[in-house]
Amino acid sequence: MAGTLGDVFDADGVVWTPISPGLAKVRRLIAALLNTVGVVVFSVLAVLFTPWLWIGSALLVATFAWEWWLIGRQVGAWGYAERADDLMIRHGVMFRALVVVPYGRMQFVDVQAGPIDRLFDVAHVQLHTASAGTDARIPGLNAQEAARLRDRLASRGEARLAGL
């Protein structure tokens, strides 16, 4: 169907590179830890004070099941594509977004990874441009891909900037 809103997010001839499934593992581990703490707190309070607090534990378990599913969908929606003059990043399932960053607008590229990220070999690439509103982020790349992308984007940005 031509002219649909979906066309805005699907550029012709673009090959999207997915992010690492390791990001889902990281997010699910964090969700599991937080929900476990909540369930333990509600359970202890239910034993000590009132059985009605078991409802809180049950709600947290249901919330965790929903988070598990949602995290998989969110991570699967991320992708990026390197084109000749720009980098495209898309994400979102319900609220979709497509960011196009021209290489010539990039000022610097950050790579970040916290302790849990490093445990699962995951890093995040942050692109900074002249305008803070056009900064872009690609989460959940494996460390080697993040380093490769950082170097490639930096060299492409430098080459495009030199032509100004």
From TrEMBL:
Pfam families with a match to the protein in the record: bPH_2
Alphabetic keyword roster: Membrane, Transmembrane, Transmembrane helix
Span of domain YdbS-like PH: 77-153
Transmembrane annotation, as ranges: 29-46
InterPro entries: YdbS-like_PH
The protein's name in its UniProt record: PH domain-containing protein
Native species: Kineosporia babensis
Lineage: Bacteria, Bacillati, Actinomycetota, Actinomycetes, Kineosporiales
